[in-house]
Design goal:
Layout lengths: L3 E4 L5 H12 L1 H7 L4 H13 L10 E6 L2 E10 H19 L14 E8 L8 H15 L4 E7 L3 H9 L3 E8 L2 E9 L1
Parallel strand pairs: 4-5
Antiparallel strand pairs: 1-2, 2-3, 3-4, 5-7, 6-7
């Protein structure tokens, strides 16, 4: 297995969008302003290909083997997330003419794992763990002491993986009215 992690590019949007959608579910509708699956996926592709939002290729990394994308992770710090969400809210308000609110997902001083997902046919190969280790390396390289993520309260398998990797639940969190655990790892 020759797995590598690299910065995503705009050309990866077709492969990344379904993984983001699988990982974030209903949040994707909020971020794209769309309701139908096809429109949500198209909206996610547009977000990936632009530079002013949290799911931009600039903040996304992909795990690949011989150029086949097997997983992805979106990383940024809490303050950057707040700034990026401000841009996206303005864009959505202009496009749809209504008020949009995007929930804060991290504290300013944290390096944040927004989204992580492994392709269904690549699960069980350690790719999720590889991506988490990559996130930790990035956090250290950039000078952060805390790496954080949110996990839905019912996703017990994911929470167990994060706990095995050293994350601890620090507080309850709410995103689009749904309960999450905010988990932090000291790095």
């Amino acid at each position: 297995m020759n797995l590598l992690v690299r910065q995503a590019s705009m050309l990866d949007a077709e492969d990344i969008a379904p993984l983001i959608y699988e990982a974030i579910g209903d949040i994707a509708a909020r971020l794209t302003g769309a309701q139908e699956d096809k429109a949500i996926l198209e909206g996610l592709k547009e977000l990936i290909q632009s530079e002013d939002n949290r799911h931009s290729y600039l903040y996304t990394y992909v795990a690949h083997e011989e150029e086949k994308i097997l997983g992805m992770i979106v990383l940024y710090d809490g303050k950057t997330g707040k700034d990026l969400d401000g841009h996206l809210m303005k864009k959505l308000q202009k496009k749809h003419g209504s008020s949009y609110r995007i929930d804060k997902e991290a504290h300013d001083e944290e390096y944040y794992i927004d989204t992580v997902c492994v392709a269904p046919d690549a699960r069980g190969r350690g790719i999720g763990t590889l991506l988490l280790h990559f996130a930790e390396q990035q956090a250290k390289k950039l000078g952060y002491t805390k790496l954080s993520l949110n996990v839905e309260t019912e996703k017990t398998k994911a929470r167990s993986l994060y706990e095995r990797e050293g994350f601890v639940v620090t507080e309850p969190w709410e995103i689009i009215g749904e309960p999450f655990y905010h988990m932090v790892k000291e790095v």
